[in-house]
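@channel anyone free to eyeball this complex?
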Amino acid sequence: MSEGIGARVARKEDKRFITGKGKYTDDIRMENQAYAAFVRSPHAHARVTGIDTAAAEAMDGVIAVHTGPELKADGIGDIITGWAITSKDGTPMQCGVWNPMVTEYARYVGDAVAVVIAETQALARVAAESVDVSYEELPATVFADRALDTGAPQVHANVPGNLIFNWEIGDEARTGAAIEGAHHVTELNITNNRLSPNALEPRSAVTVYDEAEEHYTLYSTSQNPHVARLVLSAFYQVAPEHKLRVIAPDVGGGFGSKIYIYPEEITCLWASMKTGRSIKWTSDRSEAFMTDAHGRDHVTTAKMGFDENGKIVGFHVDTIANIGAYVSLFATATPTYLYGTLWSGTYDIPAIYGTVRAVHTNTAPVDAYRGAGRPEATYMIERMMETAAREMGMDPAELRRRNFITEFPYQTQVLLQYDSGDYHTLLDMAQKAAEIDGFPERKAEAAARGMLRGIGYSTFVEACGLAPSAAAGSLGAGVGLWESAEVRVNPVGTIEILTGCHSHGQGHETTFAQLVADRFGLPIENVSILHGDTDKVQFGMGTYGSRSGPVGMSAVMLALEKVEEKAKKIAAHVLEASEDDIVIEGGEVKVAGTDKAMAWHELGLAAYTGHNLPEGMEPGLKETSFFDPVNFSFPSGALICEVEVDPETGVTEIIQFTAADDFGVIVNPMIVEGQVHGGLTQGIGQAMCEGVVYDGDGQLVTGSYMDYQMPRASDVPSYTVRHGSTPSPDNPLGIKGCGEAGAIGAPPAVINAIVDAIGTQDLQMPATPLAVWQALQTVSARQAAE
Amino acid sequence: MYELKYHKPASLSDAAKALSGAEEGKILSGGQTLLPTMKQHLAAPTDLVDVRAIQEMSGICAGDGTVSVGAATPHVDVAGNADVRAHIPALGLLADGIGDPAVRAVGTIGGSIANNDPAADYPAAVLGLGATVVTNAREIPADAFFQGMFTTALDEDEIVTAVRFPVPARAGYAKFPNPASRYAMVGVFVAETGDGVRVAVTGAGEDGVYRDAELEAALGSDFSSAAVDGVASDPRGMLDDIHASAVYRAHLVNVMAKRAVTAATE
Amino acid sequence: MSNVKMTVNGTTVTRDVADNTLLSDFLREHLRLTGTHVGCDTSQCGTCVVHVDGRAIKSCTALAAALDGSDITTIEGIKDGAELHPMQAAFKTHHGLQCGFCTPGMIMSGIDIVNRYREEGKELTEAAIRHELEGNICRCTGYHNIVKAIGEAAGNMSDLAKAAE
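replying in thread with the prediction:
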């Protein structure tokens, strides 16, 4: 059976996970290891007026207690953001300062105030309770839509009115005029609920300091260890890069939350140096809810104008994005260049304009979470389309079809140029798979049982593999967005691939090896993928934004091309043939049309013995590539959700969920489908289950799984997944990226289906039984009044 | 978790001794609520007295129109017990719906009622069936046992040893789980007993489990789900949180009451 | 401190442990069996599920001292020599795992579910599997392939059981 591109190969990495031999950060134990526990602010906003560490320090087994001012005095830098946004008036954004530990003001519940280092984890936690912190409580700003109110409490003194930036995109005058003259205008207030990423493995760090070498090692639950090292070195001044090794071993899910460099890693690295001890810190779930960067949290007013044929003439958006107490690494890019640039959706919209006001609040930092900006854009657009269709008395699918983009490349009104796609075909596929024709009958059957059936659509396009670096840089990015790969052919012919991407569930150890199988016909068992260690891999940007396929694998392909080129030269020389006649297939290097051949391992040996190489050729067979794509890739999809609502209780059951996606070329359909299933479930989670809730004082109400509803097996159906394919023209493999699609496309399909079932548009996410039941009460009240 | 001393007495008297000798002793029966609370430093007993090795506290026996469940009997054993299934199937179904399978393997009825957790299932059955709570000191009728949220008639160091359920003519339980925790957000137990119809509601009330007099009256004259339609449950006194408003909870009490009656009459 | 003696994955182990030691900590820290994970503080995620005397329980919600004399099986103990347990094999075949963190708990729960349904003679439908997974959270797979894997393993485990009879 082929193991190449397109093969449904079982994962190489599975064995260690299914036998309990995975090696996650918290599984590591160093010699001489101590444990850290953080003292955290119980207040959303307070001035720290004193920290008495004496009682904790006096406890038997407590090694040290450290506070923010000590870090600052040692020159440890403030936590930075990676993308500078310019407001529409041309002024640079204004961000509050984020000290790894509080120096004077605590700005959200969970803000780190001090750290206790002790001999055991239990003791560190008990001692942390004995650190006596005096607070002067201050009024808090909590909600995005109140942060800009006159007189709202100031989160940071240097950010007047809590406004970080007021960004714009598109053509205001043209859009205003288009909507003004529209035949029909749909207007909606839309909330995109705040989420907690909830990777099942809590964040963890193990830090080691070698005094003799002045060298640090950080084992960390990171999606991008190289970026972590760069930032820890260049900005936080923990250690120069060559004196700092960052290892991200097995990581139990990320979803964005493990991109960022958090106060805990910085503090523990520094504390290792101060105490001379290896230190482990592992978050518990309560800490994770408080301190892992949250996602989404937008409030938006949107207006969409249509002509008499249902063609969109203009789209206007006004969003307030909650950034939280501090500006995390990608926090500013998410509600701007990953959001506003997607406002055209799958539609040909001639005029678009909108603004995004980013605000500080006394809540945990908000940053990129699976989809990052694109779910927010898709939800808004697709809710608008559904609502507009109902208002205009049109079939929602037909309204979408009338507005689909059909010619590529397509230049949107909001920067992006879509490279390829076929939205009609995807919608056809989805409708066929969802047996849309039978829906009226199913609805009637449900009604006979007293149940409300509804069907909802969503079509989406997203942008993956953020690129190219120069363009990102011109828009304010602080890093490049290329990816690196190194292909090492060993003397025995086995191959190691070193990648800057990081696999934490995505299956790279299998799919990256499939590229080799495809190119050289070698079994994937002969290929190892090395990642997640800054001492092994030279540099890379990590895994997020569905970039590992389109960008990371492309880098591997380019390196493989170089390997092939050199291998052919060696083979031509050894086999005394022309380079152009050499082919590599089935693990053999052959002269086409002859029986002359050498086994792949013989070629490896020839390269390394150097006994018989072409004149002037260096020995060895190892190639490196840095791939910087010329454009994003643009996966797209059409999703259909069918629900049944129990009007007595407000409980919604998803009867059927269909997703037809275009990911371009697919390397391993089994793994891609797994990504879709997981993304859809997170999208359904956002739509029906999940929501971070703070009360008016900034206390976190959803602080554990007792109050934050994770989607469970019984909350979701088995999915119907279909694939269309228009390969991306902008990378050598034609891959588009699949990791975020489900989370981007699913929420509006679910809400549109529920809205269809219950007969009111007045429903925000999460559509919990309470929310649906309350919406149903307004319908009954309205009907009673009529 | 704070430091503590663990005891595993083999007899009730040793358990009582261990409790009275402790600075702050707590009974460990299944620990499915207590241990998470302790892990989060929300409870800090100095001593835990594990009652699971006390023989007379485990197991189920039926006779004289009652089914008696030892306080340290795990939910899974109640759910699968032949006597329970034969005489009070609603009790078995209730036990089979507590928490998840791994919790049911360990959690016990004693632990479930002794705390009067407002979101526990068992209190609805105990009160709904008019059971008798047997302790190492006395017998307490259900109506006197539950005294408000997290409050019972138990004296300090008093140990629940068993719960004796009278076999009803018919009974049913319906629960609306909290979407996040899956604990009962509203659980209604209805039973036709020798004392007439009893209706107990858990999860919904500010004071923990309670009997609903109006539903009892309505069902007393007509034990059918239609009879519930005429009752308007009062949102006053209902819990109100992010998962359910008081009004919604009151509404769900009726819906679950209907479903419990349907279950009882099927 | 308590002295506890248990059989863990077929081997007798004896250790002195502090009375507040959770079984999950005992396995991970004392025995260094780190396949059993901890993903929450409220006994809901199920990454810590192990078998104690044949029943699946949450090892984060049990005291090691209370389990003196117990027979414990963890994810490290279910292989038969080099042979994967049918549940492990099915998770691999059906891509029932991504990041792998929930996987040990899922597999241990899966085995328990199949065993219980077989003993009770009940049919293990897709809906039943989803219902029985109430206490196991996965953030990666969307459950689709986990449900498939448990369904297939149920068949294979029953074939094995029949062959053994």
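from a first look: The first strand of chain A starts at residue 33 and ends at 40.
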